[in-house]
Each structure stands twice: as structure tokens, then as C-alpha cells.
Amino acid sequence: MIEFMESKRLWYRAPEIADAEIIGKYINDERVRGHLSVTQFPLGLEAEREFLRSHSAAAPFVARTDVVFVFGLKKSPPDKVIGSTGLHQINWLVRSAEWGIVIGDPKQWNKGLGREIAARMLEYAFVGLNLNRVHLRVDADNVGGIKCYEAAGFQLEGRQRQNAIGPSGITDMLLMAVLREDWGKTR
Ligand SMILES: CC(C)(COP(=O)(O)OP(=O)(O)OC[C@H]1O[C@@H](n2cnc3c(N)ncnc32)[C@H](O)[C@@H]1OP(=O)(O)O)[C@@H](O)C(=O)NCCC(=O)NCCS
């Protein structure tokens, strides 16, 4: 298990197949998956292994459309994963990507880790990958998530009415984004 990058309190590395169990556990946790629309269905261990296999396969960089990291606290060993984050649907022509994040341990929420990860991933996207735009989708009732993204510099771009399902039922889907030029100003 090899660390790739760090932020103040966290290490980040590529996912390994051995992480499937811990990731599968938190993705199936009712408290964690509430705002993750892709995981309204139960996720089995083999399916999670397959996801990790396909998302960590070595590929020429221009053919890659996803970069996924798992992360953990610096005071914990490298197998003690507490969440995952990734840039998805990377468009190398437009230089854009969709950012996703899951802190899988609810005990770690509301301590500013979300914004720490956002800041690190934006730096990775804009400097490491030379992207120009990072966007995300968030349920309108994910109050903590929205607060975290605004603090990291994401701006509201749009609202898709009744296009998401959260723990409280059907809700709006918000579209938020950071442009490289704006990120430069707020750092
Ligand atoms: C969304 C998520 C990444 C946010 O991470 P986090 O570490 O909790 O975020 P932060 O602590 O940086 O910021 C959250 C802010 O929202 C606030 N908050 C949380 N719940 C709130 C609520 N119900 N009402 C008002 N504020 C709330 C927190 O107090 C904090 O603000 P503060 O730092 O000013 O006190 C994390 O909660 C998570 O992974 N959730 C489960 C999966 C998920 O929803 N993923 C995102 C899908 S878009």
C-alpha cells in the first residue's frame, strides 16, 4: 500500500482489491449511502472488487476517465480506510471532471475533513491533472455537503427540480462547480 499524496490530517492512495470489504461496508451503511444515488441498491463484495479492479487498471493517461483514491487519518495505518474520493468522467478535451466524495465513517463528519479533501482534490485536479473545471452533483437536502462544497469554493450553477432521491424522499439535484480561474483567486 503506497501513499500518493497527503493533506493536513489525511493520507491518500490508490485503492487496492483488499479495500473492497471496508468500502463495501460503508457504502451499504444506511447513514452513509442516503445521498449516494448510485448506491440505492445493495452492493456485494464481488461487485465492489470489480469496481476497484476496473478503476485501478493501468491505462494510458488520456484513456483514463476516472482517478479514484481511498484516504485515511495520518495517525492510522494505511489499511484503515475511512473514505474514498474520485474524479470521474474526465474530459481531456474540455479539461473537466466530476468530483465525488464519501467519508465512510459518520464519526468523522462535521470536523472539516470534507473541505480538507475538497481542497486537496481541487489542487490535484488543477495542478496535477491540468484540468480547468471540476463539477459535482449534490442532493438539495444534503445540507452538510453543500456547506462543505461552498466553503471549498464550489459555486451553484443550476438546480434540477425533483431529480434526486435522498433520505427524505424526492428532492432537487444541485449542480456546483469550480473553475480554475476562480480557484486561483480563493486559495
Ligand atoms: C458530505 C460530506 C463529504 C461532508 O464532509 P464533512 O467532513 O462532514 O464536511 P465539513 O465538516 O467540511 O463541512 C460540513 C459543514 O456542514 C455543517 N452541517 C452538517 N450538517 C448540517 C446540518 N444538518 N445543518 C447545518 N449545517 C450542517 C457542519 O457543521 C460543517 O460546517 P462548519 O464546519 O461550518 O461547522 C460527508 O458528510 C459525507 O461523506 N457524507 C456521506 C456521503 C455523501 O453525502 N457524499 C456526498 C455526496 S454529494
Give a description of the structure.
With 187 residues, this protein is α+β, with helices and mostly antiparallel strands. The chain has 6 helices and 8 strands; from the N terminus they run ββαααβββαβαββα. It has a domain at 3-132: Aminopeptidase. Helix content is 30%, strand content 33%. Strands 1-2-3-4-5-6-8-7 form an 8-stranded mixed sheet, with helices on both faces. A hairpin with a 4-residue loop joins β4 (83-91) and β5 (96-103). The longest helix has 16 residues, at 113-128. The two termini are 31 Å apart. Bound molecules: coenzyme A. Residues 32, 35-36, 101-103, 109-115, 138, 142-145, 147-148 line the site of coenzyme A (COA).
Bound molecules: coenzyme A
Low-confidence stretches: none
Task: Quote the beta fraction.
Answer: 25-35%
Rounded mean pLDDT is: 93
Q: What is the share of helical residues?
A: 25-40%
CATH class placement of the domain at 3-132: Alpha Beta
What distance separates the N and C termini? Answer: 31 Å
Shape summary: globular
CATH architecture descriptor of the domain at 3-132: 3-Layer(aba) Sandwich
Number of helices: 6
Radius of gyration: 16 Å
